[in-house]
Specification:
Two copies of one chain form a homodimer.
Chain A (H helix, E strand, L loop, with lengths): L7 H19 L4 E2 L1 H8 L3 H9 L11 E2 H11 L6 E6 L3 H7 L3 H4 L2 E8 L8 E2 L2 E5 L3 H8 L3 E4 L3 H14 L3 E4 L12 E4 L2 H14 L1
Parallel strand pairs in A: 3-4, 3-7, 4-6, 7-8, 8-9
Antiparallel strand pairs in A: 1-2, 5-6
Chain lengths: 208, 208
């Protein structure tokens, strides 16, 4: 896997594979052909075979894919079998909604704390997680060995805050601030652009 | 515009153009060359010229683009100059966060009501918007001429609920339920896959 880099188009499809396999598993499906998987996912069967071959393939001629096995292998490739410690920056509405997001735990993401600059929020509990002051974030990251920060703060503060968190040891950001966050150095940023998604909806409605 | 369909790759970039232009406008920038815009957006200058030519182009040789003009033209193309009436289905954490999302109004989206099946939530106000019973959603959609529904309900109920809402007159869905919603007929669906975004982050962290 490390030898031959996998194209970002493939890695973008992996979470979709994982989600579909997770649904199949819930439905009790034990095996699936690339043809059936392709119909569900609306990509071609040859695309599926090609994608999964990047990871050594998992299919058997005439049998198809074992759902449980493929699910667990893709989960490993996605790194979902590890536990990752996460903090949320910003205890506003989005921060609260994410703290309540049930699927984190299933995927190995452990929310350890929520931080906010607003002192009046400090000490509140959100989904069983304490809101702490931003003044204590540096010590917390280092003591707890926090790897990921979810940013739900106003865009004006996103960059400077992220740079500080990097210096404290955070290596991954899930960014909900309404700005394309580009950070220097060796960190991973996943920008969520809700606003762009909304505009795409508006555009498609206008064209309809 | 109607004569020559625009590729979905281009339409996907339009919201990004719009967002960058919106930032430039806020900073008081009056004009920008395709070169500068390309550096900000990390796409090539020729890509930008090509994309904007789909809409008749807006640049002038040796001057670049007038930010205000381009912003307003792209806004029109995206249909952001219209008012659209929206309801939120599900008054849980994500529904609440979205009801509080300030940018809706700026983009012409008017949240008219929030609906939930839980009777104990009915009558509550969220961001100044009343929570109503799902029993009254049909009459509400028809009386208020609602066009868009934001779905924040459990995935098990997403499809059947969406089909009903379509029958009542909804033509666009912004779907936060953790399922790829595919609906029959002539409606627009924009699926938001928070879970996939999180898995992409996990994968990129594993590879780092």
């Amino acid at each position: 896997m490390k030898e031959k880099p996998i194209s970002s188009a493939v890695t973008k499809r992996l979470p979709r594979y994982f989600r579909y396999l997770s649904e199949l598993k819930e439905q009790g499906t034990e095996r699936i052909s690339s043809k059936e998987l392709s119909e569900r996912m609306q990509v071609t069967a040859s695309q599926i075979r090609q994608d999964l071959n990047n990871f050594g393939g998992f299919g058997q001629q005439g049998y198809g894919y074992n759902v449980e096995h493929l699910y667990s292998e893709i989960g490993k490739i996605l790194g979902l079998n590890r536990v990752r410690k996460v903090i949320i920056i910003g205890a506003g509405h989005i921060g609260q909604a994410l703290a309540n997001f049930q699927d984190f735990k299933k995927r190995g993401f452990q929310i350890c704390g929520i931080f906010d600059v607003k002192q009046e929020l400090v000490g509140q509990m959100i989904a069983g997680i304490p809101v702490m002051s931003m003044d204590s974030v540096e010590a917390f990251i280092q003591e707890q060995n926090i790897q990921i920060a979810i940013l739900t703060l106003p865009k004006e503060y996103a960059y400077e805050t992220a740079v500080k968190l990097m210096q404290y040891g955070v290596t991954g950001f899930w960014n909900f601030a309404l700005v394309d966050l580009k950070l220097p150095g060796n960190v991973v940023v996943e920008n969520v652009h809700l606003e762009e998604s909304l505009m795409t909806l508006a555009y498609n409605l206008s064209e309809g």
